[in-house]
Amino acid sequence: MKKLLSIFFLLTLSVILVGCASSNAENKKVRIGYQKNGTTLLLKSNGELESRLKELGYSVEWSEFNTGSSILEALNSGAIDFANASDAPSMMALSKGMNFKYIAGEESSPQMEGILVKNDGSIQSIEQLKGKKIAYNKASISEYLLVNALATVNLTLDDVESVILSPADANIAFENGDVDAWVIWDPYMTVSESKGNQILTTAEGIVEHRSFYYSSDKFIESNKDAVVAYVEELSKVGEAIDTDSSEAAEILEENTGIAADIWVTSLARRSSVASYLDEAAQADLQRLNEDLYDIGLTSNLVENLENHIWKP
Predict the structure, then answer these.
(1) By the 8 A CB rule, do 34 and 63 touch?
(2) Distance from C-alpha of 40 to C-alpha of 17, rounded to nearest angstrom
(3) Which of 97, 178, 252, 306 is at 20 to 30 A from 260, Cα to Cα?
């Protein structure tokens, strides 16, 4: 009888332990923060990442953000596990003491941002921006581009009239003629170009422009399998977009209200393939770190930047 009770007890204990293990696996959650771009929206839409993470025991929660600074603040606070943002906001965040790691990035795409002017011939060169009203978003990739573009012709921000506006407000001001130029990134730049406005210059040959993906030390340490899956699925989606951007463009149209043909043009200006950071990407980040500090857009250099780059 005692032997039977012992066997029964062991079997019951085994069932409980298996149930607890199953429950723990089911309770693992990956919280993905994202800004709307072709890669993240197609990744969210096709379900491949969620299927793969489900096999690893994770559920997925998606949260949308409108700016690089807000999504990185959420990552830093532990509210999300993954984020995507461009290079300048991330370096500014690190300089303020935030803590996260670069886990993957896309190739430099300087044609994704530029300086817009009216197509009336009144401004045909960067030199002719002197004394003009220029709209841009403060402490952003736009300000970084403007400072460096002006420097190519020995001008500074003191030589122009800065008009600090959000992209939406800058768009209205530019269309109404309240400012002479607008420093902006895509898709705003391509939308404005489609209305007949002129790109005075892109960032090509002036500054690099990279998009990165991020996670936290804590999440990476305990969930390397999820991080690898995330990066690999991002890469697959990016390759699909580079091959044929039509599906991504249609999804973007549904989510943003901006016409698919605008998105096709915009996506053609970049490579959407994400990969682990190579030496070129790391060198660009270090250069950005030093540039932002030198021109006063950050108050502190990010020390030991390599410690913020994940090497799988």
Answers:
(1) yes
(2) 37
(3) 178
In this predicted model, what pLDDT tens digit does every residue of 58-116 receive, in sequence order?
Answer: 999 999 998 888 999 999 999 999 999 999 999 999 999 999 999 999 999 999 999 99
CA dist 217 and 78 (Å) reads 10
Domain residue ranges of the chain, discontinuous segments joined by +: 23-109+210-308, 111-202
Residues 6+ apart with CB under 8 A from 47: none
CB-count exposure of residue 103 (10 Å: 0-12, 13-18, 19+): buried
pTM of the model: 0.86
Secondary structure (DSSP) of 254-269: HHH---HHHHHHHHTT
Residue type present at position 156: T
Place of tokens 């690999």: 232
Which CATH number applies to 111-202: 3.40.190.10, 3.40.50.2000, 3.40.50.300, 1.10.3720.10? Answer: 3.40.190.10
As given in the structure block, the two tokens for residue 127 are 């030199």
Neighbours of 223 (CB within 10 A): 20
Q: Does domain 23-109+210-308 have CATH number 3.40.190.10?
A: yes
The SS3 of residue 115 is strand
The CA distance from 16 to 8, in Å, is 12
